[in-house]
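Researcher: Before we compare anything, I want clean individual predictions. No alignment, no superposition, just each chain on its own. First chain goes here; please echo the sequence and then give the structure tokens.
Model: Echoing the first chain and its structure:
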Amino acid sequence: MRGGRVLGALLPLVLLASGCGIRATEVVEAGEPATVQVAPAGQLGMVLYFVSSSSAARLMPVVRYAQPPGEGSGGGSYGDDPPVGAVKALDLLFDGPTGAEQAAGLRSELPNDQVKIGVELSAQGVRVTLDTAVTGLSEPARQQLFCTAAQARTADRSEPVTVTGTDGVIGPARCSV
């Protein structure tokens, strides 16, 4: 009788340990990790794209506000005139990441120069004109330009962007993020 009780007590453990017929499988790739789009609130902010230091080709969106949230008119860190539009977004992009953004592991592949920027918006997309060389820019630098300019035009970044510099033209291309 005692042997029957021991066997009865061990049977559920044996079945549990056998996995009930479920076989082990290899890891199944399911694509890229989920991302969340952060959009600026109304006309108070804009989205810039910087390169993540953890991956040479991965862009990360950064929201820059015209004035800190909750502060009144003229109280922002950018002076009395809040930055609006694609020209200001690209101007801030060429300024590079802030100290806090650098501490978070973001950097820019664009030259940290004062660049004269012109932007035309049309049915064909966004045309950016810069007074600097553009054909030698790395792919991450190009994507920083394409994504920031397209984001300034539409929230879904689907606009084709063409960038003309002193040495030629890159694009039209779309943001790959």
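Researcher: Okay. Second chain, same rules.
Model: Second chain and its structure:
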Amino acid sequence: MVPPEAGPPAGTTVPAGGHRRRRSFATWRGRRPFWGGFLLLLGGGEILLTEQASISVVLQAGAGGVAAYVLPLIMAVCGLLLILNPAQRLFYSVIGVLTSLGSWVTSNLGGFFVGLLLGVIGSSMAFGWLPDQEPRRPRRFRRRPAAPAPAPATAPAPASAPVTDQPTS
């Protein structure tokens, strides 16, 4: 006799293949500074693309030409390493912000400010990411705090006792 395959408990639903992959990707993404690394990678790519612009658009040419390609490459590599190796996020984010700021001088004003801002914001997000923090819940799934219980009503003062505002001495 062949034992039945171990499946989900009765009464539960199994998500379809796409939902399972999306959920597992979201879980993987939540354990690393994904968006910070992605923005840093995007900033490096944007600066590299502005280096390929026509010569009438290029603001700086000459001896800084090598650095104009090296710094965005370092930014892109730091962005990838932030995603793939989150244990070293502090080092990669510091190097990422320094190369982003260095691109101001070497790479068409940091890819016309867009790549510079993407790199600085992404590096800052990765630097501030905390690995042991509980994931945030969407607002619709948060529990609202219970309303405080109404205070018990106090009994009024007896009618026979006179109420005076002056001290009796």
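Researcher: What stands out in the second chain?
Model: The two ends are 99 Å apart (CA to CA). Additionally, The chain has six helices and no strands.
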